[in-house]
Amino acid sequence: MNVNGHPYHSIWLGDDGWSVCIIDQTALPHDFVIRSLRSVGDAAEAIATMRVRGAPLIGATAAYGIALAMREAADDFALASACDLLGATRPTAVNLRWALERMRHMLAPLTASERCAEAYAQAAALCDEDVSINRRIGEHGLHLIRSLWERGPRSGATLHILTHCNAGWLATVDWGTALAPIYLAHDAGIPLHIWVDETRPRNQGAALTAWELAAHGVPLDLVVDNAGGHLMQRGLVDLCLVGTDRTARNGDVCNKIGTYLKALSAADNDVPFHVALPGPTIDWALADGVADIPIEERDGSEVTEVRGVLADGTPGSVRITPPAVEARNFAFDVTPARLVSGLITERGACAASEEGLLSLYPEKRSLLP
Ligand code: MRU
What we know:
Bound molecules: 5-S-methyl-1-O-phosphono-5-thio-D-ribulose
Largest sheet: 7 strands, mixed
Number of strands: 20
């Protein structure tokens, strides 16, 4: 997507042909900072501190992290250590494990001297695939948006879509998952208005989704996380559209904390609640997402302090609680499949159920117990 008229991906190979460039998302929306990752340690730090975040982008960064590791040492021990280091950065998004497993699978049979070049080639291929997957999610989601706009209860009027967290191009290599259909629908001339949840505690909605959508000219209003129920009750939301960090094979989806409450409000108010996801976000090994998806718990300081820009323009944090108060910081929650109106993947739309997913990914049937 474009930033000030210049096309960007969220991760790319540096001009030197080996370092890896990322947009430091902790500096957005106040500063547009490009950072260079020069070691597997840099890649792990960028994922853990959320300079890069969003399930597909975490996977892409991990793949390049393996390539950076293979530059320094490419024996079996180095490969296993790099996978362990990167795999320990964040627990919930299954794309991380998927990308590492794919890299390990491709590299393990090779000799050490072959691994580095192949790792860079594989990381680049994974990024290219992500772009094309998300573009296809966008096209399938566009059908849904168009049909709601043409045939929904308020046909022809501006369509109001609520989204949570950031499932835009910054969360992927390009296009995004939940935002890809929004970009394509906007470009196709369908009048849209997006309700952007601020997404406490890290404010991915306020900082990233609002920045992305505004840069693309998509009309939006930022709302506090708790506004969704009120908006839906008043008939001000036509569609909820969110991403997911891990989808169990029964259609349960795990996304940023607060997504479940949106789905409950949507069900209570007959608002369609759709989830956009790339195939690598499906965890076929998990039969029950509510019971089994690991939920990341981050540092409580993300809740007790708010980051932003201070009056003098410098970035900083302010504490918003009494000094002794401690916080628990659950980063994700699971929305059960029964609350999900449908899934949108690169292969088309389906019901949020094992049969729905298998209708799009029949080759996975043989892997199931
Ligand atoms: O903690 P984050 O910012 O990595 O969480 C990201 C999300 O919750 C996104 O909605 C998710 O990765 C799915 S979309 C790409």
